[in-house]
């Protein structure tokens, strides 16, 4: 029903109130004169990928970072933009719906109109399919008014998250040309922004006047790197899920007779599960990244949970809450291998009914061991990126069942002496995605949309809109843009799916960093969480009063501000130059040389491709 | 871990803020002088049950309604209570946890202490088991402080929702005697309050000085009658679930490719499903009451959904949201009969593995037709009240599967010409129960707790604390107490479970009234909801600003105020008496006689046991 998109609709009281909220623009974007400061040419975070990316992206590799500064900022070599000719911009929802996505459109619309009322913003109706088919809806104040600060993507809709095949790319090129677009803004996650990077290069080759800009909007939190501290939607998703998990914890503690197994969305990475753990303090979380790092089998995980149940039973506790990320199934080595075999058989055209008979002996043995419901779910047709249909595989039920069997066994053997183990399973999936966005996501999405205009006004192509220093209030946010190529890496091997992208430059989903501060914070508290039931209930998402300005713990504990540090380094380098001007003393010069030699030695080792301590973020 | 109960705990920012909120006491309860006005002796709503209940409850049947009035109220025959001797009161969580339950304890505690600081409130630790074992925790300001306005029952915990066997009743009698309790307050739903009614009678027979008081706290909303407009917890549960359903609606509309089948808690009645429908406007809801009333089979329901899917496909719509109450399985005639057979076999001691072989031929045929996952779930051990384990039976999956099969069949036959049907299933169960209570439930629970003290101070036994006129602000609430026996009826037949209670007086769960205003409101809009996607998103539960004072639509559209009308009737009767005093004219007396004769004639017909138009609420 394309004709329904963008239609004003009836809002509830709370929605109306939210539609009245107006995010603030950071000082650097206020007014119509903007200064753009360009940094040094960028590289990629993985030196070994550098030459391949450079070769494949001759037009868009190595572009400098851009920082948007206050009109009054005194920066010698900043580009000052005061003229704002009429522009025509297209915007498309390209990833899965994420709270805050509507605000990107709204922020972009406002920025465009504030700088020239004759400019036009066209929304592609029905996602990428609308882009290919040139179905557009002109964004106006009327159109956007009932979607301000609202969840979902129903302003424009979305379809397939892909602009990749030459057919799709050509259709995009033709659409941008015939609609005479100066810019195309792509709203999405890792896949969509990888597509945006390729598109930008192809557009540059084709000398298309349309500049391509990406916006990091994905609730999984897996689009994250030096330039992107978090993505739009993660804050809301974490809060809605934490609310529900906390409610279940409270429930568990009240009746003291159930173990709740809860599966959370988040695809390949466990960011949502980790953030919810830090918010709600459930007894246990099984992070996919830990399972993968320590190569834990399904039996190891079952044993780990059983040991926890047993330890708690010894303290007369028969309740608990266990979180599981939906990507877990692909992190478990033997299940992953089984899925890969199934996937290969699918590609060979083997029908569902025959797959189980054609598995290798060991995979067949594992398959037969699994309960029927999981077997059926593992056999579901893989998704477009070759990963399994994670949302459909009920790992929480499999684990609950295996734990129950093992506890019953221990009971018979006399090693477990407690009461009967009772599990209840929940899947917290689609009920969070369409939520009203949190204040943070409203602000973040709106300002990113606003930045997109400035990227286009500065004539940049192949950039992503970025904001750093996000953990501080929005008037301290640093606005900028980073080349999409600087976020790309090449995987030569892969644990987990996405094998099709091996060897090709891509913006890869970032998994939970087991050396990171968020993970460390959990580890420090894991034993207490497990045994002491220090459940915490952040409550429902608030828009007024206590809790409305809370940000994710993941964002707050990680001291990211990469863009700020890049600028700080430039200041140090400038200072050295100002101390060591020709005419300075021989001693000062010697000291500088010696110190700088040491710095460059260390850095040269650290940035060599063979440096094993290197962990790309 | 009993020792953890009542322990002060760390609260999140929002929880802390909530703990600071103090519900207001309606004017009638302010101060320490309270007037109690007694109405006429009560009867039961079903005249045919009357004589049985009267016989079984000789001490507690027919007690008058009590209204608590302002100290300044001018009511001639009101009992005025100014003395407040020391009392010792026990309180026990007896039903399933429900948001707002903690506030009953807090309100009761405050009322007790305000009237005499030397009085004591003892909480039974671990629910009814704590009651039988006399495990208590003295409620103090310290103990209650971190549980004010908080969800769950973890202040005291709960166990089995039953005080029924003579062993349990005796243990309760002994506990109350040895703890020298003046009152026992039982917090729970229909089952717990039925138990409270029996307990009150038994205590009276035993000349126990302990008075028994019940409080209507159950999230299902099925404890509802002339005196009880809604129960504590229903407001919160409806709001949390509506939030999630609305998010799923937004999601469905954004991607336009899935049908979401959502199962909601609510046990035998569909109040939660109906309220959430009125809040969120999903496309379809299958109410158990409709299914039972029209004797719809599983195939009828499947056809109804398929027809909806087909009609929407003809408008190029391939998404939708379908709500299902968890009690649906017991409303479908053939499934209910199958469950009954299974139940009987269980009672005969047949083992799970053999049950399927001993079913009657037709039940066996139905059983074999069902997918394996449902078969397993139907075979789960029934609950203590003989009903199936509703939370464990995934009716949403069964329906989604049957609909898919039927749509595929129609596709082959060429009657359905749309795209493939895709369903995603969700169970919204335990994630709402532990929620922070809404402002309404905070207020309602607190004031009910407060009223309990006044019931005890007035020396009443076998009463439930009641508040009417709830849809108005709390300063307009009417506080009172109604005898538990006046809420009892006797079922002579039963559709649905609870067959064990047939023939015995009980406070029965009230199902959705298909002649009621809430249902009518849905029916009026059902066609629009089905086809036009006028989804509405009330958003997350708010404690400040827009939406924080919203009440359930069910409460607001139903014009209940029974207690107000009872008082109004008294006023009319008094007025007649004042007009027709001895000495009035013959004409006036004649007119009065004639009018009153007509009134009494009509009422005598309406209240006769054989009156078929009679529908107990």
From TrEMBL, chains A, B:
Entry GO CC: cytosol
Of which family is this protein a member?
Belongs to the phosphofructokinase type A (PFKA) family. PPi-dependent PFK group II subfamily. Clade 'Long' sub-subfamily.
Any single GO BP term: response to glucose
Which Pfam family, an example, fits this chain?
PFK
Relate the assembly described in the record. Answer: Tetramer of two alpha (regulatory) and two beta (catalytic) chains.
Q: Where are the transmembrane segments?
A: none
UniProt feature coiled coil, ranges: none
Name the principal localization, coarsely classed. Answer: cytoplasm
Source taxon at top rank: Eukaryota
Q: Where in the cell is it found?
A: Cytoplasm
Which residue intervals define the domain Phosphofructokinase in the entry? 88-453
Recorded protein name is: Pyrophosphate--fructose 6-phosphate 1-phosphotransferase subunit alpha
GO MF annotations in UniProt:
6-phosphofructokinase activity; ATP binding; diphosphate-fructose-6-phosphate 1-phosphotransferase activity; metal ion binding
Instruction: Identify the pathway.
Output: Carbohydrate degradation; glycolysis; D-glyceraldehyde 3-phosphate and glycerone phosphate from D-glucose: step 3/4
């Amino acid at each position: 029903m394309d004709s329904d998109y963008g239609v004003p609709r009836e809002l509830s009281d709370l929605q109306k109130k939210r539609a009245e909220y107006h995010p603030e623009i950071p000082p650097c974007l206020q007014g119509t004169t903007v200064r753009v400061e360009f940094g040094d040419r960028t590289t990629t975070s993985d030196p070994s990928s550098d030459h391949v990316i450079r070769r494949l992206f001759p037009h868009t590799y190595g572009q400098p970072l851009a920082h948007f500064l206050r009109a009054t900022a005194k920066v010698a070599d900043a580009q000052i933009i005061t003229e704002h000719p009429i522009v025509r911009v297209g915007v498309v929802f390209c990833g899965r719906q994420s709270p805050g996505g509507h605000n990107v459109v709204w922020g972009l619309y406002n920025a465009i109109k504030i700088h020239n009322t004759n400019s036009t913003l066209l929304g592609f109706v029905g996602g990428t399919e609308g882009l290919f088919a040139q179905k557009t809806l002109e964004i106006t104040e009327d159109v956007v008014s009932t979607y301000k600060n609202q969840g979902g993507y129903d302003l424009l809709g979305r379809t397939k998250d892909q602009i990749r095949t030459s057919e799709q790319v050509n259709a995009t090129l033709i659409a941008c040309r015939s609609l005479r677009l100066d810019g195309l803004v792509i709203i999405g996650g890792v896949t969509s922004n990888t597509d945006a990077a390729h598109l930008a290069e192809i557009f540059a080759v084709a000398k298309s006047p349309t500049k391509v800009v990406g916006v990091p909007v994905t609730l999984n939190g897996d689009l994250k790197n030096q330039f992107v501290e978090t993505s739009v939607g993660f804050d809301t998703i974490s809060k809605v899920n934490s609310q529900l998990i906390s409610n279940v914890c409270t429930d568990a503690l009240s009746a003291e007779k159930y173990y709740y197994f809860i599966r959370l969305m988040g695809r390949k990475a466990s960011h949502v599960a980790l953030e919810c753990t830090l918010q709600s303090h459930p007894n246990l979380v099984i992070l996919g990244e830990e399972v993968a790092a320590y190569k834990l089998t399904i039996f190891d995980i079952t044993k780990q949970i059983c040991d926890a149940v047993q330890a708690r039973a010894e303290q007369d506790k028969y309740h608990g809450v266990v979180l599981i990320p939906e990507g877990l199934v692909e992190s478990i080595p033997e299940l992953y291998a089984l899925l890969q075999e199934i996937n290969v058989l699918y590609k060979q055209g083997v029908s569902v009914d025959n797959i189980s008979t054609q598995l290798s002996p060991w995979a067949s043995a594992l398959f037969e061991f699994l309960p029927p419901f999981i077997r059926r779910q593992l056999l579901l047709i893989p998704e477009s990126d070759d990963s399994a249909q994670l949302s459909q595989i009920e790992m929480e039920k499999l684990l609950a069942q295996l734990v129950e069997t093992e506890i019953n066994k221990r009971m018979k053997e006399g090693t477990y002496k407690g009461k009967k183990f009772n599990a209840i399973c929940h899947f917290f999936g689609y009920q969070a995605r369409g939520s009203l966005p949190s204040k943070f996501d409203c602000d973040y999405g709106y300002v990113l949309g606003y930045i997109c205009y400035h990227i286009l006004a500065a004539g940049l192509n192949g950039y992503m809109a970025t904001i750093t220093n996000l953990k501080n209030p929005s008037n301290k946010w640093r606005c900028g843009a980073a080349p999409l190529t600087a976020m790309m890496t090449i995987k030569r091997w892969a644990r987990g799916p996405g094998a099709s992208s091996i060897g090709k430059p891509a913006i890869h989903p970032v998994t939970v960093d087991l050396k990171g501060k968020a993970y460390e914070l959990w580890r420090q508290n894991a034993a207490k969480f497990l045994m002491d039931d220090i459940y915490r209930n952040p409550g429902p998402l608030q828009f007024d009063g206590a809790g409305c300005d809370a940000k994710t713990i993941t964002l707050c504990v990680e001291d990211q501000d990469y863009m700020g540090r890049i600028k700080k380094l430039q200041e140090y380098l400038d200072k050295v130059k100002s101390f060591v001007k020709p005419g300075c003393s021989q001693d000062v010069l010697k000291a500088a040389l010696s110190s700088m030699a040491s710095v460059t030695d260390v850095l040269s080792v650290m940035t060599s491709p063979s440096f094993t301590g290197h962990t790309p973020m």
